[in-house]
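Reading a protein record of the kind used here takes only a little practice. The integers have meaning only within a learned vocabulary of local backbone shapes. With that in mind, consider the following protein and its fold in token form:
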Amino acid sequence: MAIRYPNGKKYQPNTPAASTAQKKTVSYGKRGMSLEQDLNDTNAYYLTHGLAVIHKKPTPVQIVGVDYPKRSSAKIKEAYFKTPSTTDYNGVYQGKYIDFEAKETKNTSSFPLSNFHQHQLTHMEGVLKQDGIVFVIIAFQTLGEVYLMPFEHFQPFWQRMLDGGRKSVTLQELKHVADQIPYGLNPRLDYLNIIRKHYF
């Protein structure tokens, strides 16, 4: 199925499938699952245990081409994103609005800022101005490491790029302003523990 952005550009998922060899090197008790699945499992745990209500935002899609191989089934052949997305997740924790974007990379030494879009930054700036809790979660897929960076620490890297500087954040730079989220069983990626440290 072809999914396209409003400008007609073909959508490419930012989570390429990991090879079997890579899964073996990063998989410690299912480490190496997609970041999205890990976060969805974590959010389900938070919800079940009454800790927070945080969900992945549904992406509005307009279907323009459908194939009917059988009368009882339909296959979507082409679809477009109706509007540019904002961030991946939002919800509420201890009376505070939470909003964050989650990205992953196979790079081992830096994170490319091209994974983000200006409209996402504009959205996160707005949330920050309203005193919401806003951050980014970045996974280094090959290293099996996940980091939470408050948006106010991420913003200067974006501005540096806009000013003609480096188009990525090095892992060393990231480690100075972000907290590593350790993998666990339940919850999978306990990012609320880090949020408590920064915001409560």
Q: What stands out?
A: The chain is about 30% helix and 30% strand. The domain at 35-57+84-199 is CATH 3.40.1350.10 (Trna Endonuclease; Chain: A, domain 1). Helices lie at 20-26, 35-48, 118-129, 151-162, 171-177, 191-199.
